[in-house]
Structures are given as structure tokens and as C-alpha cells.
Amino acid sequence: MVNGTNDRPRLTRKGERxxxxxxxxxxxxxxxxGVAGTTLDDVKAAAQxxxxxxxxxxxxxxxxxxxxxxYQADTVVTNQxxxxxxxxxxxxxxxxxxxxxxxxxxxxxxxxxxxxxxLAESDPEARALIAxxxxxxxxxxxxxxxxxxxxxxxxxxxxxxxxxxxxxxxxQGALLLAQVQRSTRPxxxxxxxxxxxxxxx
Amino acid sequence: MVNGTNDRPRLTRKGERxxxxxxxxxxxxxxxxGVAGTTLDDVKAAAQxxxxxxxxxxxxxxxxxxxxxxYQADTVVTNQxxxxxxxxxxxxxxxxxxxxxxxxxxxxxxxxxxxxxxLAESDPEARALIAxxxxxxxxxxxxxxxxxxxxxxxxxxxxxxxxxxxxxxxxQGALLLAQVQRSTRPxxxxxxxxxxxxxxx
Lengths: 201, 201
Hints:
2 copies of one chain form a homodimer. Chain A is mostly helical. Chain A is built from 9 helices and no strands. Chain A has helices at 13-33, 40-47, 51-57, 61-82, 88-105, 114-119, 124-150, 160-181, 185-198. The N and C termini of chain A lie far apart (54 Å). At the A-B interface, helix 6, helix 7, helix 8 and helix 9 of A face helix 6, helix 7, helix 8 and helix 9 of B. Chains A, B: This is TetR/AcrR family transcriptional regulator. Chains A, B: GO terms for molecular function: DNA binding.
């Protein structure tokens, strides 16, 4: 134990930057080509690091994969928080953000949700990390919905936490429909219909 | 051209049964192990046919895969129609059917939707067939919702076709959440919340 919290060596600021670059490039490759289609050699080339550098930060592909899942979860949760779903303007901004995001999703699907089909049945650790990331996403959505709820803007009798689960489910399924139909139309229809039902204008 | 509609030989009734058994066994294997994890040898063994019999019906894996996509689409559409979503009793029955179905989905996800992540980016023909299957499913949901609509049971201002897309998206996403969380709870929450918002009791 070096730093008292885990058994990884403490990183210098430069080390942190290199590690972050590796994770970011690996995440982009995995989103584009899938887990099975991405090799450590691809990641080395994209992040412009040597094999020994890559090994220094990630002794095996599983550790890198786990860092990628954490990175994608952080990204969606940060985006969710920045959208300020709780304000009326925030709701519009959030809707526009997810609809813009779906253009990326038409090739590759949701960066986090698309990992479920690839990993849930074969990699229990990855499954648990993806589940935790999606839970954090639902919590971030719920924070915004609670604000709308306390402003009296949710449909009567609806629990903000239940609605957050529903919004996340609809987002994931709508991304899947958009990916397979190569069109943003089903995505926009599903999100707009759910928001029209759940939120008073 | 043998039978005037396509270039496949017309099958005897026994031939139809053998072909159907091959497709059914292949569908079960693919749902359990994924497309990449299922070989033609696995299918031969499960359907108890010889290599030449399998080749007679399906000259390559792609043709078999396309028949499996059609089979899974037929299955979900038939189940959807039988649930009689349009009646009040039908709504309860439909909700119970999908919640029961999700127990299967906890390992493997939706038999049709789970193929999106595996095939949409690599196999354009399969992608188009899955998209067509999901469209047929949305149409079947819409038929039920139109009946509810004409009985005045939908939330005001909601188009039944738009709601059908939303229901299908929520189903797909809720199946994904159930699969990754190994729990039916997020699935039940999402479906029940959407139905509570969309349909008058």
C-alpha cells in the first residue's frame, strides 16, 4: 500500500495526464469498434504510449476496461448535471443535449448502455461497474426531477426517483431504436412523448 | 424460380417442420450465447439434423441468422397481439406478460433488441431486418393503444403511434436495466410509471 487507499502507486501530475489520455483513447476506440474489436496495440497507437507505459498504468485489459466504464459513467453523469434538468430552461437544454448526443449514438449506441450487451453475461465485474454507472446516471436525473417536483412541475402522483428510472430506460431504449433505424426520429418521439406526459409546461 | 415468389424450393410439410425446428433451436442458442458464440455445429446438434440437411435449408450462416431475426420478430409480435392491449383487462395482462418475460431477459436481454448491439454496425442486412421487426412490434402496440384511445383512455393530447414508439423504447431500455442490474425492479418501475402517466384507469 503506497497511498493508504489502494495498492496503485501515487501518480505525478504528468502521470495522471498520460493515464487519462490512455483511458480517453480506449473509450473512443471501444465505442467505435466494440470491446472485442479493440486491442491493447490499438490503444497504444491511439494514445501514443509505449507498451511498458501502458502496462505501468494498466497491467491487463480488464483494468483498462474498468477504467473506461468509470470514464463513460463520469462523462454521462457530468453532462447530466450540467444540463440543469431542474429548471424549465434546463429541461429544454437537456432535451436538446440528448437529441444532439443521439447523432453519435446512431453509430455505436449509448457509450455506457452499449457495453451491457457486450459484457453483462461474460464479465461480472464489468457488469457491476456498468450497473453502478447507470445508477449514478439515474441519481443525477433524479436530482433535476426533484427540483421540478418541488416547483410543482411534475405530473401529480409521480415519484421523482421512479420517473428518473423511467427517463433513463426510455433514453436507453430510444438510443437503441435510433441506432437500429439509423434515424433520430424514434428517439425524439419517445423522449418528447415521455416529457409531455410527465412534466407540466 | 420454383414457386413463383422466391428462388427457394417449395418445402413439403415435413420439410417445413424440420426447417422450423432448425430456426427455433438456432434462436434459443443465439439468445443464450450470442451470435458470435453460436456455430452451425451447435445448431446441427441442437436441431438433430445432419450437415447436408442444414445446408439444404440454410446454405450459409447469414441466411439462418435472417430467419432467426424473422422468427424472433414474429414471436414478439404474436405475443403482443395476443395480449389484447386494447382492453382494460388486456392492459393488466400485457403488463404481467412483459414483467414475466423480463425474468428471461435478465440473462440475455430482449431476444430481438439484444441483436442490435451485436449486428447493427457490422451487418447491414441484419440491421434492416431487426429494424423492420421492431417496427412491426411498434405497430402491434399501436393497434392496442388506438383501441384505448378511441375508448378515451389515453392521456389527452397523446398520439397512439407516438406512444407506441415510447412504450417500445421504454420496454427495450427497461430490459437493458434489468439485465445489467440483475433485478426486475427497474423494469417494473419504468413500465408502471409510463402506464400510470399515459393511461387513465
